[in-house]
DNA sequence: TCCGAGTTGGACGTAGTGTCCAGAGCGTGG
DNA sequence: CCACGCTCTGGACACTACGTCCAACTCGGA
């Protein structure tokens, strides 16, 4: 528990919220701990490791992956590892549902067309400014008619997107918002001063 | 290794072929073993765990999940767990690409009227430098051993990603590449002078 | 040993940043 | 109608960070 806890937490964190990690004590046949539980089991419950009888261990003492079905119908993929010294049984249950759905969609829709080369990255911060401002224009009307709250909202969004870490961003934002550079900094100070 | 091997194999098996599990020896700073390798590293390579310095450990001694980018452009989610007695570092790298594609499709079809509520792209240009450099380290070895061509290649990649449009990027790159700021500009001029 | 390629730290001029303020514009209430 | 408060403005300013340049240094090869 002391020893394997971090590893279990790591697995649970990596796959959250789609994986449940269960650590068993094979000697006492009880559940020691559960990370990110969704099967309803909790620490102290009986392990019921008998189901492993029907599965053959592979090399490395790993059982599975083998399928499971939860009471609510969710399908899982599970693997179990026998850990030694101290003895423990590590069981990872992965909710296969989201991936099955995604796979089905991909198979149905993505098969004929190009496999999406890679979006790469945005070095068009200039465009992003116009993009954010533009979408706000659709909500709030023309930029010239905006009030202070509108500007604050948009600036807050731009700021938390890290736009202002880019060189020449502030003047560009001022231009897009049809305000002066001074105002941008003033409003920015206001936005930042009230959050942290 | 004897002790953690089964757990590592279990994780690798569960997520195969999309996850790579690396077990490090923090004392010797070497890779002890790799399950389902796809980043090119293998047992005996230096660990280069320095990149963890920039990540905060959560509770349970787990780092991450934090993003990484491979040299070929694949995006990864990684978690790292510090294991004690015996000391070891467990690192799981999950190829996020398939999930991102699936998620994008699901989002596109499940929300037909999505007004793009949150673009929220990478505001971690700082991290991107370390990602690019880090993934190159895996291909080319430790940064101290690089020659000029290696630096040129990495700088070219960083430059075309627009990294240098960000404030304080140049000194940060210099730090990551273990060269002086002057050299960064010199090499950068070379990279830029031969392309356009 | 000398040479040249490459790197370095420092110096320096400049672009761009962030702050400040006096004043203009404007709606509101007296 | 004026006075007041609120907001934006344009310019001034100090300052940070950028990008360039150069003399000095290191290091491997002729």
Structural summary, described in words:
The structure is a homodimer of 196-residue chains. By secondary structure, chain A is of the alpha+beta class. Chain A has 6 helices and 5 strands, in the order H-E-E-E-E-E-H-H-H-H-H. Chain A has helices spanning 5-15, 97-110, 125-140, 148-160, 169-177, 181-194; strands at residues 19-25, 30-35, 62-69, 75-83, 88-95. A 5-stranded antiparallel β-sheet of chain A has the order 2-1-5-4-3. The longest helix of chain A has 16 residues, at 125-140. The first copy, chain A, is elongated, with a radius of gyration of 26 Å. In chain A, 28% of the residues are buried. At the A-B interface, helix 1, strand 3, strand 4, strand 5 and helix 2 of A face helix 1, strand 3, strand 4, strand 5 and helix 2 of B.
Features:
homodimer; 196 residues; alpha+beta; Beta-Lactamase; 5-stranded antiparallel sheet; 6 helices; 5 strands; 39% helix; 19% strand; DNA-binding
Question: How many domains of chain A, as an integer?
Answer: 2
Sheet/helix structural class of chain A: alpha+beta
End-to-end CA span of chain A: 38 Å
Q: Kindly report the oligomeric state of this protein.
A: homodimer
Helix content of chain A: 25-40%
Query: What gyration radius of chain A follows from the Cα positions, in whole Å?
Result: 26 Å
CATH architecture classification of the largest domain in chain A? 2-Layer Sandwich
Give the overall shape of chain A: elongated
Which pair of protein chains has the largest interface, and what are the residue counts? Answer: A-B, 55 and 52 residues
Question: What is the string of SSEs of chain A from the N terminus onward?
Answer: HEEEEEHHHHH
CATH class of the largest domain in chain A: Alpha Beta
């Amino acid at each position: 528990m002391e020893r394997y806890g971090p590893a279990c937490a790591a697995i649970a964190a990596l796959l959250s919220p789609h994986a449940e990690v269960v650590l068993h004590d094979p000697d006492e046949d009880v559940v020691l701990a559960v990370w990110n539980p969704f099967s309803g089991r909790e620490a102290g419950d009986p392990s019921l490791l008998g189901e492993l009888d029907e599965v053959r261990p592979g090399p490395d003492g790993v059982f599975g992956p083998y399928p499971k079905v939860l009471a609510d119908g969710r399908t899982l993929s599970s693997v179990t590892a026998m850990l030694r010294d101290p003895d423990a049984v590590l069981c990872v249950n992965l909710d296969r549902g989201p991936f099955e759905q995604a796979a089905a969609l991909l198979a149905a829709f993505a098969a004929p067309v190009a496999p999406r080369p890679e979006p790469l990255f945005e070095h068009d911060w200039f465009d992003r400014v116009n993009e954010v401002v533009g979408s706000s224009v659709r909500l709030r009307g023309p930029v010239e008619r905006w009030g202070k709250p509108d500007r604050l909202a948009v600036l807050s969004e731009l700021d938390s997107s890290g736009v202002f870490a880019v060189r020449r961003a502030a003047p560009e934002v001022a231009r897009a918002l049809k305000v002066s550079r001074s105002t941008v900094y003033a409003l920015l100070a206001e936005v930042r001063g009230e959050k942290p």
